[in-house]
Every structure is written in C-alpha cells, then in structure tokens.
Amino acid sequence: MTALDARPDTTQALRFPAGFRWGTATAAYQIEGAAAEDGRTPSIWDTFSRIPGKVRNGDTGDIAADHYHRTSEDIALMRRLGVTDYRFSIAWPRVQPTGRGPAVQKGLDFYRRLVDELLASGIRPVATLYHWDLPQELEDAGGWPQRETAQRFAEYAGIMAGALGDRVATWTTLNEPWCAAFLGYGNGVHAPGRTSPLASLRAAHHFNLAHGWAVRELRSRLPARCEVSLTLNLHAVRPLSDSAADVDAARRIDAVGNRIFLDPVFHGRLPEDLVRDTAPVTDWSFVRDGDLEAASAPMDSLGINYYSPTVVAAGSSPAPSPWAGAEEHVRFLPAPGPRTAMDWPVDAEGLYELLTRLRDDLPSVPLVITENGAAYDDYADPSGAVKDPERVAYLHAHLAAVHRAIEAGADVRGYFLWSLLDNFEWAYGYSKRFGIVHVDFATQRRTFKDSAHWYADVIARGGLRS
Ligand code: FCB
Q1: Over the stretch 28-68, which tens digit does the pLDDT of each residue have?
Q2: Which residues lie closer than 8 Å to 248 by C-beta, 6 or more apart?
Q3: What span, in angstroms and rounded, lies between the C-alpha atoms of 310 and 333?
Q4: Domain boundary assignment for the chain
Q5: Is the minimum distance from the CB of 430 to ligand 1 under 6 angstroms?
Q6: Is residue 120 exposed (0-12), middle (13-18) or buried (19+ Cβ within 10 Å)?
Q7: Does residue 275 sit in helix, strand or coil?
Q8: For ligand 1, atom 4: residue with the closest CA
Q9: Hey, what CATH topology would domain 12-461 get?
Q10: Ligand 1 centre and the CA of 7: distance in Å?
Q11: pLDDT tens by residue, 308-336
C-alpha cells in the first residue's frame, strides 16, 4: 500500500446509495457452450452462426466460455469480485427444446444448481428469460413476426417461474428487443438473419406482447416479493444540429428505437409519429384489440443497457439498415471522441442524458443499468497480468455519470457490468473481449484483468474513489 492509498477518502469520493446493487451480466449463448448436451436443441444462433460469413471467423457458441461445466469456478470469480447480484439468461432451448410442451428436467436442474450456488455465495440471481436464443423450431414456424411466438414465450415464462420462483426474486422478460427485432429481422446481422422492415416491426410488436403476457404469467406464479422487469437498449439520440430537419431525424430514431417499446409497455399505446413514419411499411393491423393493454402490465423496474450515443442528421443511410423506413430520412454520424475495439464512441454523457430523461418521462419507475462495459484488445502479458486501463477509464466515467444522474434525482438502483467473462460477441464471435475476466479460449483459463481488481475495489467501497 502506498502513502497515497492510505490517505482517508476525501470529499471527492462518489458513494452510491446504501443497498445499491453491484453486479455483472452474461447471457446463455455467449458463455454456456454445451450446445448439444442434456437435451438442448439448436437455437436461432446455433443455426445462424453456421451460415458462412455471418459470424467472424466462423465462430459459434458450441463451447463458448464452457460455463455450463465451469459454473462453480465462475461463481468463485464473482465471490472474489464481491458482487451482490449476478444477471444471467436462461437458454430457452435448454429447458423447452421445441419451444412447446413440458420442460426438460436436466435443463431446469442446471439453472437450479446455478441459482442455489449463487444464493449459497450470498449473490442474488437476476434471471433474464430471453437473451436472443429462440428455439429454432419456433423460428421455423415463423419466429417473432408471428403472434404465436409471443404465446409460446408466455408459456415458457410460466414454466420457469414454476421451476425457479422459490429462489429467484428478480426476473427480466426480454433483453434488448430492439436488437432482436431490428438486427434479427431488419438488417439481418443477427440471428435469424432476415431482412424485412415489415418483419422487424411485427417482431417488435410481438416482443411487447410477449413481455406483457409473460409479466402476467410471472405475477400469477411468483411470490409477491418478486420483481419483474424488462431490459431495453435505449438509444441516446442526438441531432447533429438544432436545425428542424436534424431534430426531426432524431425524433424518428427516438420513435423507432425507443418509444416503440417504452410507449406500449408503460403507456399502453403506440407512438402516433411512429405509426405515421412507418405507414409506407405497414398499417399496423397486426396489432389486435387488447394487445397494448396486455403489453402494459405493470412492472417493477426498467433495465437499461447503454454503450454509446447515436448522432443523427437529416439525410439517408445506405441499405441494408435496421431502421424500418427511417433510414430514408436519417443519416448516422460517428460521435466524436475515443473509441472502443467495437469502434463505439466512449461517451458517458449519453448515459447521463438517458437516465435524466427517464427520470422526467417515467418518474415512478426505478431504473437499473443492466449492461454497460467496453471491448478492448486485451491479452495476458508474460507475467500473467491483463492490463486494461482503457476499460477502467470507460467504467469509471460511466459510473461517475450514473452517480451524477442519481444526484440529479434519477432513481437508479443498480449497475451490472457487461461482462463477467470474455465471451461470444454475436456477429463478432470471439474477436471482441468485453470481460473483466480474461478467458483463454484454448485452455478456458480465467484471469482477472486489472478492471476486475478495480471493480472489486469499487464494490468494496460502495463507490468511486473520486
Ligand atoms: C448488448 C447485448 C450483450 C452484449 C453487449 C456488448 O447489445 O445485450 O449480449 O453483446 O451488447
């Protein structure tokens, strides 16, 4: 310890409220592996990753970080970090392989063991029901553009509530339905790789419906103390200038990127401007009476995933684009500043903007940062250390922004760092490392990066040194 470390905290320290939840997040397909074990069937990501050219280097999640076989080791890492909570997702095709009918016992057992070991370690499990791994059979039957898929999802939610409801107190229905709908069915860079603006809008609606129906199922089966939530990757949209045309471009992206979910699930309505903007694509007649009311079943908090802001101006974007018609009116511009290995701008102000906007728009809804983090080209040096000062700087800046938002009145209850482990980063395969724990994919050896040591210190202090 240096003399500097021994100094008492100054008034500069940024403490978070007592009871603030400090976590890490992962997703099933990105870490579990064991893709064909114990009755698991292919999801759309197993299929998609096998299509040449869809995932960098032809990588798949077949083995991933082998978490299915290394659960105890990974929970030991979390104990070392001192996290209070762990956000993971359940692989639907592991527990209900065809997306219909009874659950597979071995699949349920895996998640029971995971949850029991977390609880025994004093870590609260936070379960996400859908982080993009739709059973392939349901995609073959039409996937998310079909209404039936929302019904199937609600049934699966009920099965999981029955299986884990006595031990999991915090539930999230969907992770980032924007990505699943618009990258999966709009520009096709994610599974299942379809490219239809209409399919993406239908999928978005069926995600809202699936969420609402699942909330109802969960509420009917879970003890009253349980919390139910939804995680959105809200876009922090900025117009390039305050010209009316640029401001209107930002409005369009806010409609099809944010309010397409926020309005149905919190207000039981579709944004009027969205319906107008998308008139060339659809008349929305697939929305039936009662759907929006069902979508707005009350929930306990909103999860927000934030990585970087979106800057737009009037103009047009090259196809294929995920924006369902908006691309004809909107040009996307690189935000200034440093970039991560994803080429995403580092801009913590965007998180502050989002949180204070939600404070104003949804004043009674508690907020949780369910993902935030950064990819860098990390490697273990000859001494075995993994030095990732850029990630530490990124995380520090974003946590400081969260703190500032809390001081400004945003009701933020927790922060889940993406990600615990290096993992399968979707279309980028294993080429992008988001973990605070380095994974050597040849040996599956786990190594704390400097950012993991830093995060452990943040959690132990309940905040930032300054
Ligand atoms: C989010 C996803 C998550 C991860 C991060 C980097 O969009 O929810 O699975 O890939 O991005």
Answers
A1: 999 999 999 999 999 999 999 999 999 999 999 999 999 99
A2: 314, 329
A3: 8
A4: 12-461
A5: no
A6: exposed
A7: helix
A8: 425
A9: TIM Barrel (3.20.20)
A10: 38
A11: 999 999 999 988 899 998 999 999 998 88
